[in-house]
Amino acid sequence: MKRTILAGFAAATLAAPAMADTETMQATGSVAEVMDRLEAAVTEAGATVFARVDHGAGAEKAGMTLADSQLLIFGNPQLGTPVMQEDPLAGLYLPLKILAYDDGSGQVFVAYEEPEESFDDLAVDDDLEAIEKMENALEKFAKAAAGS
């Protein structure tokens, strides 16, 4: 009986959605246009673009369909390094990421996770200046990508 209860509890816990603080805003244009604006804003700010992941193209290659969705992975060692010096596990959440996606009805959104939330379970000081700078940069880049 104990095993059944524990197994049920574990299954329910694993099935629960993550409660991350995700910021989402409506965007104008196609996912590709939004990502082009995002990539330009990131590059103009002096950050490094590491990858642009096209989830829709990946789904298509797998013989599946997915509304258009792209992820930009970017960063700046001036901001990321101090966070990783406090806790190397921050590297699981860095570099930063912003997602542009079509909600399936033709509306495009931009989304990102607040860095402070990402580092919540780590030994990283919430008041670290680099985290505030990351949050400000993400908001600025997301607004530029959204066309607002």
From TrEMBL:
CDD domains: DUF302 (cd14797). SUPFAM superfamilies: TT1751-like. It comes from the Bacteria. Residues 53-115 form the DUF302 domain. Residues 1-20 form the signal peptide. Pfam families: DUF302. Keywords: Signal. This is Camphor resistance protein CrcB. Gene3D superfamilies: TT1751-like domain.
